[in-house]
């Protein structure tokens, strides 16, 4: 069981920035996928950004050019730098860790096994 703890959420005005952090209880370097998702009430959880084991990154079209995902394997940590935030970015953000055996695009819920409790991001106009 991998425990994930997110931090860094908050309330900002449109155009502002936030940096989300996620610390895992175990090694993440061996995981096929690590990533960030978000969910608004009443909507499905959607992939925001993911990193494959080979360090290849992928992003949702809605955040490309504004968000940057990174990880520090030595610290078992995952980060999401969010710039030029928009009101539509408002959601609960979750970090996630996948299997060591297989994975996919790293943008689907099914690519992941363990989930954090989430951190709220609110962007006002």
Q: Could you characterize what this model shows?
A:
- It is a single chain.
- The protein is an all-beta fold and 125 residues long.
- Helix content is 0%, strand content 47%.
- It contains no helices and 11 strands.
- It has strands spanning 4-7, 10-13, 18-24, 33-39, 46-52, 57-59, 67-72, 77-82, 91-97, 114-115, 119-124.
- The strands form 2 sheets. Strands 2, 4, 5, 6, 9, 10 and 11 form a 7-stranded mixed beta sheet that branches. It has a 4-stranded antiparallel beta sheet with strand order 1-3-8-7, with no helix packed on it.
- The model has no long low-confidence stretch (mean pLDDT 96).
How many extended strands? 11
**Mean pLDDT over the full residue set:** 96
Give me the strand/helix succession. Answer: EEEEEEEEEEE
Q: What class, by secondary structure content? A: mainly beta
Rg computed from alpha carbons, rounded to a whole number of angstroms: 13 Å
Q: Work out the helicity level.
A: under 10%
Q: What ranges have pLDDT less than 50 throughout 5 or more consecutive residues?
A: none
Largest sheet geometry: 7 strands, mixed
Strand content: over 45%
Q: N- to C-terminal separation?
A: 39 Å
Annotation field: number of helices: 0
**Anisotropy-based shape:** globular
């Amino acid at each position: 069981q991998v425990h994930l703890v997110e931090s860094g959420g908050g309330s900002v005005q449109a155009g502002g920035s936030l940096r989300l952090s996620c610390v895992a209880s175990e090694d993440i370097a061996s995981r096929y996928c690590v990533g960030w998702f978000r969910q608004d009430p009443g909507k499905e959880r959607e992939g925001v950004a993911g990193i494959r084991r080979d360090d290849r990154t992928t992003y949702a079209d809605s955040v490309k050019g504004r968000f940057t995902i990174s990880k520090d394997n030595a610290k078992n940590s995952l980060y999401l730098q969010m710039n030029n935030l928009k009101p539509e970015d408002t959601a609960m953000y979750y970090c996630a860790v996948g299997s060591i055996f297989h994975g996919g695009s790293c943008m689907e819920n099914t690519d992941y096994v363990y989930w954090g409790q989430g951190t709220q991001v609110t962007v006002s106009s």
